[in-house]
Amino acid sequence: MKSLFIAWQDPTTRLWYTVGRLTREDAAYRFVYTQGAEASPRFTRLGRMADLNAEYFSKDLFPLFKNRLLHTSRPEYPKYIQWLNLKSKDNDPLLLLGRSGGKRATDSLCVFPEPEPNAQGEYAIYFFSHGLRYLDPINLQGITRLQPGDTLRLKREDHNQHDRFALVLETDEKLKVGYCPRYLNRELRQVQKATTIRLIVEKVNPEAPLHFRLLCRTNFHLPKDSTLFASGEYQPLSAALLAA
Predict the structure, then answer these.
(1) Distances from the Cα of 68 to the Cαs of 45, 191, 221, in angstroms?
(2) With 50 as the cut, is the pLDDT of residue 136 above it?
(3) Model confidence over 67-76: pLDDT tens digits?
(4) How many CA atoms lie within 13 A of 8 on its CB side?
(5) Which of 48, 67, 104, 166 has the most beta carbons within 10 angstroms of its beta carbon?
(6) CA–CA distance from 149 to each of 2, 146, 215 (Å)?
(7) What order of strands is seen across the sheet that includes strand 109-113?
(8) Which residue, 93, 90, 85, is CA-closest to 58?
(9) Dihedral pair phi/psi, residue 80, rounded to 5°
């Protein structure tokens, strides 16, 4: 994994915007703000990175992101790795951030990976089911009966008052088991228009906190000449400045 996007939730509208991109090349990290950082007047700078149009480089992972990693010395670390469906040797910071989402209770940021196609041209996106605290007890209990490899569906919920792009996660028996993360909704809706998305249960963690309870995976092939995260929201502000 070489690249992560940073999403920020507006505290007033509750909408998510992609505000930055973190990449690693030649053993160095690079961070830039994306055009989504200008979409809300309430967005503030991240950490000490005060210039929206600058490029930031570091040999070490920026503190803003390093602080979102669970330290290996923590007693819950082995369970944490299991919840992410990773192995103890999987210690790549970008992989851990991308799989976990890097969410903290103290702010409105999360991270998600920029998918890369495999040798067969197939994309895979991992994410944890969101909104579980809003499920009724029957649906929540139903998650514990799911097995890795079980098929799920992304069902549009156009009438959702909080997110008009909402995508419900639903079993073949029409059991609602949460929502797709908001910051992926619009992109996956576009993918649905172009191709078939296979969505499966990657792992169920009955004893984990709700935000780590159900890990899902999507797989799909994009049509020729189609790209993911191509809209302006995901493009670097520094590049837009140079092109102006």
Answers:
(1) 17, 30, 31
(2) yes
(3) 999 999 999 9
(4) 23
(5) 166
(6) 27, 9, 11
(7) 55-58, 28-33, 16-25, 3-9, 109-113
(8) 93
(9) -60, -45
